Amino acid sequence: MLDLGLDKLALVGVVALIVIGPEKLPKVARTVGHMMGKARRYVADVKAEVNRSIELEELKKAQAQFREAASEVSGSLNEVSEGLNEVQTSFEEAWKAPALDGQWSPNPQSVRKNWRVRRMRTPMWFKERTGVRRHVQSGAARVARHRPK
User: Fold this and answer.
1) In the structure, what pLDDT confidence band is assigned to residue 52 with cuts at 50, 70 and 90?
2) 83-109: per-residue pLDDT in tens?
3) What are the boundaries of each domain within the chain?
């Protein structure tokens, strides 16, 4: 930049006063001021445009990274859905297979018939922990049991 001090500006002002004259000097100074403002605005616009182009390039790079990540995620989702389909088909095949060795079958009549047998298979410690009743009590017996003493 120009190294203009107060003494150099005063010298330029005196020369401009002598060369241009006192009548035209305010108009020339106003014109120079307008041109300086236009030049500053032009430089600011160029800077803003350069910044926008740099930000656009950065956004394009980020978009490419996000697209790569999305394609990786979609690939893993495809793998998961394939595994889920395999499990579902194996489950459906197992469901359609006949019951083996007289074990549980989806027939509701056999379920009603064997509920006592299945209930007896549950261990006593589990029944006590979960609060399953083991004996039938009348209403009066239940009241007497829980009545405060």
Assistant:
1) very high
2) 888 888 888 887 776 555 555 555 655
3) 11-94+108-146
Angle at 34 between CA 29 and CA 35, to 5 degrees: 95
pLDDT digits (tens, 9 = 90+) for 1-43: 567 788 887 888 888 888 888 888 889 889 989 999 999 999 9
d(CA 116, CA 52): 78
Distance CA 36, CA 44 (A): 12
Q: Please say whether the beta carbons of 119 and 129 come within 8 A.
A: no
In a 10 Å sphere around its CB, with 0-12 CB exposed, 13-18 middle and 19+ buried, how is residue 20 labelled?
middle
- Tokens 């032009």: give the residue: 42
Structure-block tokens of residue 17: 């006063």
Six-digit token string for 144: 């007497």
Q: Where are the alpha helices (DSSP H) in the chain?
A: 6-20, 25-96, 108-113, 115-120, 124-130, 139-146
N- to C-terminal Cα separation, the chain: 101
- Is pTM beyond 0.70? Reply is no
